[in-house]
Design a protein that fits this description.
- This protein is an alpha/beta fold.
- The chain has three domains: about 5-35, no CATH class; about 45-135 and about 435-445, 2-Layer Sandwich (Enolase-like, domain 1); about 150-420, TIM Barrel (Alpha-Beta Barrel).
- It is built from 17 helices and 16 strands.
- The protein has helices spanning about 5-10, 15-20, 25-35, 85, 90, 100-105, 120-135, 140, 165-175, 230-245, 265-275, 290-295, 310-320, 330-335, 340-350, 365-375, 425-430, and strands spanning about 50-55, 60-65, 70-75, 150-155, 180-185, 195-200, 225-230, 255, 280, 305, 325-330, 355, 380-385, 395, 410, 420.
- The strands form four sheets. A nine-stranded mixed sheet has the order 5-8-9-10-11-12-13-4-15. The chain has a three-stranded antiparallel sheet with strand order 1-2-3. A two-stranded antiparallel sheet has the order 6-7.
């Protein structure tokens, strides 16, 4: 496109085009262009002025404010601490939020695996939201555009030891429109099965307490001594067979939460479940035991998946390079935010690996994940953890309700940024601490400082009031 056509495309008249070509464009001509390009701000002068949080039903939503009235929302991952975001306030105030990658590189040293990355990710999400509002484009556009305009979702389904009742629960998911199912196949099914498990008694070892807050629940799978007997394997396989017959063979069923046992028993279980054509086996052992994942993947024909607790694309590298999994499963609120999660998906694709998204957050994280999924080619399906909670959709406005349509998809928003606004009245009615103000001021974090450099260099002398 030449310059003449470019100016005409912005709606500038013929006279202004001619003047522009001869270097004589007036301020009025420039104003005419500005009037047709809705930037909502002067982006180059945009600066972060504040960071505040609000607790809503065991989640923390972050709001970043700017000097031009624009603001953006982020969210600390479920189970994370708001302190992980608040401690970064003084490190980002004064920055231009449109420099999303620059800001993230500055603060990502404060993130880590699982729930420890909540603060840096919440800030990254909020900066993308602001950037989209400043430029009047949705986040998916800034990530490179769409591969899809709606996102397939699945919902984990509360377990029932009766396979018929469990199958009926999954059938009800299908009746709501879900095209992808998820359930647990746990050694808890063997609680009343004599001879179903072998384990060392005493010293707090408890096969049934693997997801409790006991000390035992923190013991990694290879170190528990728990083993599944052939009798136990048959009970678990028969349970799965009944459910598969109820829901049919055409719909994918993903599985999770098997128990804390070693990889040898994981391999035995994987082989026992192979006949049921499951969508995946999830987190059979902790994600960092790459060599054990290689053994598992090479032992069965069911796709192997992990990744919800991994921080940054570097955390996935070993799994990808060793072809240890068939599907990666980042949680955007842990992995590093919108851009980092897209990078993870792109890297996975280079290794022939698909990407599903774990998502157990409020709508801020949900729609951050939706934008990322829309822009990532090898995306498969995304979790919607709160699909059974009537209050969930009320937290935001700006998108169609219900958030998930009747075909098991979430439409991708076309509004600027994340495409959502918080419903202030609804949020105030669900505050974690009703005594606290909605997005209360956080001046106590204004001056939190440290010398954050990660390589050797003399720290600057502290400023005094006089020298400042």
């Amino acid at each position: 496109m030449d310059r003449r056509h470019a100016l005409k495309g912005l709606g500038v008249g013929a006279g202004a085009v001619t003047a522009g070509l001869h270097g004589l464009a007036t301020e009025a001509d420039a104003e005419a262009v500005r009037g047709r390009v809705n930037t909502n701000s002067e982006p180059s002068q945009l600066r972060i002025t504040d960071l505040r949080v609000v607790g809503v039903r065991r989640r923390w939503i972050v709001r970043i404010d700017t000097n031009q009235g624009l603001y953006g929302y982020g969210e600390v991952r479920d189970g994370g601490s708001p302190t992980s975001a608040l401690m970064l306030k003084s490190r980002i105030v004064g920055e231009n939020p449109l420099n999303v990658d620059k800001i993230f590189r500055k603060i990502k040293q404060f993130g880590y695996h699982a729930r420890q990355s909540g603060g840096p990710v919440a800030i990254e999400e909020a900066c993308w939201d602001i950037a989209g509002k400043a430029w009047s484009v949705p986040c998916w556009q800034m990530l490179g555009g769409q591969f899809r305009d709606k996102i397939r979702v699945y919902a984990d389904t509360p377990s029932d030891p009766d396979p018929v009742k469990m199958g009926d629960k999954l059938k009800r998911r299908m009746e709501r429109g879900f095209t992808f199912l998820k359930m647990d196949i746990s050694i808890n099914l063997l609680r009343d099965v004599e001879g179903g498990l072998t384990w060392p008694k005493g010293q707090g070892v408890d096969p049934w307490g693997q997801y409790s807050r006991s000390e035992f629940s923190h013991i990694e799978h290879p170190f528990t001594g728990i083993r599944i007997t052939d009798k136990g394997l048959k009970v678990m396989a028969d349970y799965t067979a009944t459910i598969r017959d109820i829901v049919g063979w055409e719909i994918p069923i993903a599985t999770d939460h098997y128990g804390h046992f070693g990889i040898e028993d994981g391999i035995k279980l994987a082989r026992a479940l192979d006949p049921f054509n499951l969508a995946w086996l999830e987190d059979m052992v902790p994600w960092f035991y790459t060599d054990q994942y290689v053994r598992l993947k090479n032992s069965c024909t069911t796709p192997i998946l992990t990744g919800e607790d991994i921080w940054l694309k570097e955390g996935f590298m070993d799994l990808f390079e060793k072809k240890a999994i068939a599907i990666c499963h980042p949680d955007l609120a842990t992995a590093g935010g919108l851009l980092e999660t897209k990078k993870i998906g792109d890297l996975a694709q280079e290794h022939g690996i698909a990407m599903a998204l774990h998502m157990a957050g409020h709508p801020v994280t949900l729609f951050s994940s939706v934008h990322c999924a829309a822009a990532t080619e090898n995306f498969l399906v995304m979790e919607h953890h709160n699909v059974d909670d009537a209050w969930y959709d009320d937290l935001v406005t700006g998108v169609p309700k219900p958030i998930m349509d009747n075909e098991g998809f979430i439409p991708v928003p076309n509004g600027p940024g994340l495409g959502i606004e918080l419903n202030e009245d609804a949020v105030k009615g669900m505050l974690e601490d009703p005594e606290k103000e909605y997005f209360a001021p956080t001046p106590e974090w204004d001056d939190e400082r440290a010398w954050d450099r990660l390589w050797s260099r003399t720290a600057p002398a502290p400023q005094t009031a006089q020298s400042a």
